[in-house]
Amino acid sequence: MGLFYKRHMNFGGRLKYYLVGFSIGIIACLVIFKGRGCEWLPNERVLNSIRTSNIYFTAQDSCMMASKSITKKDIFLLLANGDVNFKESATNAKLTNYKLNNVNKESEQKVYVIEHNDLKISFDLYERDSVVFISKFNDLEISKTCSEESDFPKAMYLPNDMTLEKLSSNTLRFEKVFRCEMECYEITDKDIDELFTNGKVLFNHSYPNKKPNPLYFIEKEINNALFVFWIEQGATKTRLNRIVKLEQETNKNTTYAVEYLFSEKPNCNCDQ
Fold this sequence. Notes:
Layout: H1 2-7, H2 11-32, H3 42-51, E1 54-57, H4 59-67, H5 72-81, E2 83-84, E3 90-100, E4 103-116, E5 119-126, E6 131-137, E7 140-141, E8 154-155, H6 160-169, E9 171-174, H7 176-184, H8 189-198, E10 200-201, E11 215-222, E12 225-233, E13 237-245, H9 248-251, H10 258-263
Parallel strand pairs: 1-6, 9-13
Antiparallel strand pairs: 1-8, 2-4, 3-4, 4-5, 5-6, 6-7, 10-11, 11-12, 12-13
């Protein structure tokens, strides 16, 4: 009888069990995890949209941050742990003009106010273009007394230490060619641990907003030689893909193209 009932339970019964399980999941997400990691909740969806966009800051933003002792790390902590004030946000998209890299663009804009501890920042989100600008700090307009600079706006990257921490928090997956190159260059597991502690992320060559998996190139000196590591961030795993040893003449050029280095013939015969 019990088996028959399970096989032929009507739709209403199955729906009831589904709703009970769904409700338990919501309660666990809200109470235990306080909504963090529940990307289908409105707060997390907004934060994720901003985090995965290209965030730009202007000369005025930099001036305001300095005057209020606000660091880039403070901003990214706000985007990781903050709450969206939907009441003060402008969630209805409106067509707006903005300027980036001396090019005038037109796109739909939404404004989100995000709060965390004593910090409150308004972000202009152009979701279609994956572009975000900071518009207000703690309800204060960006100061007009700060001078414009020709090289602004600039992209705001996750601070070096937070990037390394984020990558190392995942399970590390060593690709076969990476292990081979480690052996070839006499790089140890301890060296890799230190890479995620004091390595230098080459943000100008990396792709932190690449979907679905961001790519990072990290530079580190090991055994008096300079190396660049190609790292790929997955949802739960960080993939260690390749290693390139920089030659002495390359080291003098700080604007080298990382993509070119990895397209060159490697020093180790690990591709065979």
